[in-house]
Prior knowledge:
Blueprint: E1 6-9, H1 14-18, E2 23-25, E3 29-32, E4 41-45, E5 51-56, E6 63-65
Parallel strand pairs: 1-4
Antiparallel strand pairs: 1-3, 2-6, 4-5
Amino acid sequence: MLSLPTVLIRPGEADRVVAGHPWIYQGSVLRLTQPAADGDIVQVKDHRQRFLGIGFYNSQSKSTSA
Length: 66
């Protein structure tokens, strides 16, 4: 089974994602669990490891699409 890199977001930032906002801003990211290249698919979880969705990683942007 393929393990996707995971973007963990900071406490209090999950509400925007759950409400349907399409971007996760760089300042909202707590950490990336493993290296990801631009364009890689990543899973997004809150700081408690609850799954929120999947998206594309972009290290060159101020936001990461989810």
